[in-house]
Write a structure and sequence with these properties.
This protein has 145 residues and is α/β, with parallel strands linked by helices. The protein has helices spanning 16-26, 54-67, 80-92, 110-113, 131-144, and strands at residues 2-6, 31-32, 70-74, 95-100, 121-125.
Length: 145
């Protein structure tokens, strides 16, 4: 299984430690195409992809999204890039899990929460210590369908 993980990069790296925990768990379900998002050495300046720059990153990531069997997004830290990716996965009808921590004090965008259809696009509120169980539930559901 190919898994695309979405997390904030240029929007802020406050949750990088949590991204690492999520990606570690996701690797037990398949290949994480975007493992670099969880790197604690990646800053909010983004990755140094190549001389091709932002266009290279966009095109590569859209290719990875197309290849993916499932998408998991940590959406607590607002990110224009993650929002863009999620709009794309809705259009592609990819099985998607969005993870949001209400304890952050933030409010999740209505465009994300309102897209929850309970089947293709699922939004789950969670606490950090519950993340592995939430992922397990999502991937068990995928196996049954």
């Amino acid at each position: 299984m190919k898994i695309y993980f979405c997390g904030s990069i240029r929007g802020g790296r406050d949750d990088a430690h949590l991204y690492r925990k999520i990606v570690d768990k996701l690797q037990s379900y398949g290949t994480v195409l975007t493992e670099h998002v969880s790197s604690t050495t990646l800053t909010d300046r983004g990755e140094d992809a190549s001389a091709a720059g932002d266009k290279f990153i966009h095109d590569r990531d859209m290719d990875w999204l197309q290849q993916s069997d499932a998408v998991v997004a940590e959406v607590t830290q607002p990110s224009l890039g993650v929002g863009y990716e999620l709009g794309q996965v809705v259009a592609m009808k990819k099985k998607t899990l969005c993870l949001f921590r209400p304890s952050s004090g933030r409010a999740l965008s209505a465009m994300i929460r309102g897209a929850d259809d309970g089947e293709w696009f699922v939004v789950r509120d969670y606490q950090e210590d519950e993340v592995e169980n939430v992922l397990e539930e999502f991937f068990n559901t995928l196996k049954r369908s």
